[in-house]
Amino acid sequence: VYELKGDPCKGYEQTIRFVTLSEDPKGSETVTDLRSVYWENGDGTRFKFRTTQYQNDRLTESTSGAARRPSRAHTRLRVEISKPKQKQTTVGGTVLFPIQHSIGILDAARAGRRLFVSDLYDGSEKGLKVYETAAVIGDRKPPGFKTDLPKVKNADVLASQAAWPVSLSYYPRSKGRSDAVPEYELAFLFYENG
């Protein structure tokens, strides 16, 4: 489940819930429930995150913290983690927060570019992980191209939007390596309204 609210003035809030049911060879089932809430201000200088993970309804991990930089052009992030243990660190290089990252992909798609590469900080791995990402952007789909949208509230809004198929890969941040296998990949239709 994915929800996005906000605007450049108030900031953006993303809520994500990802539930996985897995079964081992003996037939035992495990339900993993990952819940994340992110808030990011409109100018890309402040970011807050909270992530909880449950396994079979038992809390197994909880992380929260914040990151900030003096200005959007500034390349150093100061990260303050409040859970599971208080910690402060800095992250160097040009790193985007999740909404900045999404806007970057959409800007690249609108400009007709096929590839968007960027580092991403989203509070993963107890707030200490930065990913290198590569988004491969497909051909623009015109408004009204998708006629089988689910019958859910507000889905009709998407019928009036152009969209691009996107394949997004997340890599461990390298130190001079030129080749790597992604840690995970996502494929989705990215509508023009985000």
Structure, explained:
- The chain starts with a strand and ends with a strand.
- It is built from three helices and twelve strands.
- The chain has helices spanning 98-110, 124-127, 156-159; strands at 2-7, 11-23, 29-40, 46-55, 58-68, 77-83, 87-91, 95-96, 115-121, 130-137, 163-172, 184-191.
- The chain has a seven-stranded antiparallel beta sheet with strand order 1-2-3-4-5-6-7.
- The chain is globular.
- By secondary structure, the protein is mainly beta.
Relevant terms:
single chain, about 190 residues, mainly beta, seven-stranded antiparallel beta sheet, five-stranded mixed beta sheet, 12 strands, about 50% strand, globular
Mind sketching the topology for me?
Elements: E1 2-7, E2 11-23, E3 29-40, E4 46-55, E5 58-68, E6 77-83, E7 87-91, E8 95-96, H1 98-110, E9 115-121, H2 124-127, E10 130-137, H3 156-159, E11 163-172, E12 184-191
Parallel strand pairs: 8-9
Antiparallel strand pairs: 1-2, 2-3, 3-4, 4-5, 5-6, 6-7, 9-10, 10-11, 11-12
Major β-sheet strand ordering: 1-2-3-4-5-6-7
The number of helical runs is: 3
Helix content: 10-25%
Rounded to an integer in angstroms, the radius of gyration calculated over CA atoms is: 18 Å
Cα shape: globular
SSE pattern, N- to C-terminal: EEEEEEEEHEHEHEE
Summed up, what is this model?
11% of the residues lie in helices and 51% in strands. The protein is mainly β and 194 residues long.
